[in-house]
């Protein structure tokens, strides 16, 4: 379905981003990975699906490095047809104790990075009259949770930005949408579970059950593969007129 298209997925060396990259690659899309840490393993995993794979180590908190990454995509892949804004970090504390530098870094990586990447790929998408911008927001793009002021603000910002850019491209072949997952068992979430287990002196299994039970009626994690499947749907002709949505994939979290 996506043969000849190129997808840039930020924050894609593990977790949700890698899951989305793999599902897009299964549909024939060439992939540009981005992220810190080991990238050789994830790159090989995607290459095994028979598509062209690139990598950029761009720091998503730095606009100049984002611009260099897009230049690389234009030069080596002929542009970005599908942009998945996924890179994100988290920090938890009450607002009066929230470190200023943590606020700044979360807003930079979770929100501003998506703005910079999107503004840089839209001209190429307009020239082709086809494109997909898919931003991974969160259930926290729709509702709040205590002690996550920067994350919730950034994810609400992603949902708002998605609506605006969808309106600005509404008469074109470009669609702009957001995915709002609930709990996904990523390294980020596993750390929260382990921290809870240690802090409360309970088993990891019990900590997992408590974490899900607080928010997610299904008591199930959403998987990276499911989010990848949703991204594939957004890229399909069936979604040509799906524009500006914040699509909850959250086990009923935001239905409450």
TrEMBL record:
Highest taxon above the source species: Bacteria
Keywords of the record: Oxidoreductase
Cell inner membrane listed as a keyword: no
EC number from the UniProt entry: 1.1.1.30
One function term, GO molecular function aspect: 3-hydroxybutyrate dehydrogenase activity
SUPFAM superfamilies in the record: NAD(P)-binding Rossmann-fold domains
InterPro entries noted in UniProt: 3-OHbutyrate_DH (IPR011294), NAD(P)-bd_dom_sf (IPR036291), Sc_DH/Rdtase_CS (IPR020904), SDR (IPR050259), SDR_fam (IPR002347)
Family designation: Belongs to the short-chain dehydrogenases/reductases (SDR) family.
Alphabetical list of PANTHER family matching this protein: 3-OXOACYL-(ACYL-CARRIER-PROTEIN) REDUCTASE, 3-OXOACYL-[ACYL-CARRIER-PROTEIN] REDUCTASE FABG
Protein name: 3-hydroxybutyrate dehydrogenase
Protein species of origin: Rhodoferax ferrireducens
The organism's taxonomic lineage, starting at the top: Bacteria, Pseudomonadati, Pseudomonadota, Betaproteobacteria, Burkholderiales
